[in-house]
Amino acid sequence: MQLTTTSAVTMGNAWMHDFQYSNAVVELRDFPCGPPTQQKDRSAILSGMGLRFVRGEERLARGHALVYFRTADGTTLATYLVVPPVVIDLAKYMPPMFAGQLPAAGRADVAAMPMPPVPEEIEGGVASLERLAVTRDDDLIDGGSVPTGSVERLLFAAAEVGRAYGEAYQRRDFGDALPETADTSLAVDEVLMSLMGDHERIGEIAKLIGRLRYALDGNDSALAADTVSDMARIARHLPAKYRAEEVIAVAQLAGEKGARLIQLHLDRCFKLANEDYAAVARIESELRAITAPENSV
């Protein structure tokens, strides 16, 4: 089915004397009465029009959709609907002689813009549109059946679906659909930790141990708890061989013994990161000697 601008104008002269395409919607107005059968057909288009989502949901309209129509001869026609995310005042971009013919911006009955305004024949039929909708993450709407060869009815059907889709989009509750706001600072820290090497992560834990010891000496339980939480977050990025959980545990021990244990554990971690396994063996021997039962306090 070949549709051209010339044929659209010719049919428009016979069926209506004024139409305008503006503010993201084709508006048809002041239709002549015409023969009763023609008026009946037009009413059938309006009454049969509905939003039948093949992909997506009406309550979660994305604001962009492929819509297709079927003709009696099996042809699939389609257009693309877009609800502008911002108010478009087309009068600003039109010559003054035409600007007065456009409706005011910000009107309440915002509709989705059909592009092209007259649905075009699609090769591959509905199956190709389904694949395209998935690829582009578009809604897909079945516009129903339309008569063959009537440009006016195709124009009107696309405009009517666009109006209904625009209304569905306006009714959408975006507050319910949006995810809860995450703590972006934590997300950034996680990314930074993932980019660090083991040596740098151990250095960060060593810095936090100094803050933890300060909090413990000053009986600041809130600061101590926050510091332990920060240390645990870094520890998740270290391999098990560093025994980071044990490092955090001994960092909370008071007294000289606690201070000596944490120093040995940090030394062990740094030597392990440097692959100085001989030094690691000596440190582990000293740790066993300090934590032996007879040396327990």
Report mean pLDDT, rounded to a whole number.
76
* Spatial order of the strands forming the largest sheet: 3-7-4-5-6
Helix content: 40-55%
Rg computed from alpha carbons, rounded to a whole number of angstroms: 35 Å
Q: Helix-strand pattern, N to C?
A: HEEHEEEHEHEHHHHHHHH
Which strand-content bin applies to the residues? 5-15%
Shape: elongated
* Number of helices in the DSSP assignment: 12
- Could you give a short account of the major beta sheet? 5 strands, mixed
Question: How far do the termini sit from each other?
Answer: 93 Å
> Which segments are poorly predicted (pLDDT under 50) over 5 or more consecutive residues?
1-49, 104-108, 177-182
Number of domains: 2
Number of strands: 7
User: How would you classify the helix and strand content by structural class?
Assistant: alpha+beta
Task: Describe, in plain words, how this protein is organized in 3D.
This protein has 297 residues and is α+β, with helices and mostly antiparallel strands. It folds into two domains: 5-177, no CATH class; 184-295, no CATH class. Helix content is 52%, strand content 14%. It is built from twelve helices and seven strands. The protein has helices at residues 5-15, 36-48, 96-99, 125-136, 151-171, 174-177, 184-195, 198-217, 221-235, 244-251, 255-273, 277-290; strands spanning 19-22, 25-28, 52-55, 64-70, 76-82, 113-121, 139-145. The protein has a five-stranded mixed β-sheet, with helices on both faces. Strands 1-2 form a two-stranded antiparallel ribbon. Helix 8 packs antiparallel against helix 11. The N and C termini lie far apart (93 Å). Mean pLDDT is 76; it is low at 1-49, 104-108 and 177-182.
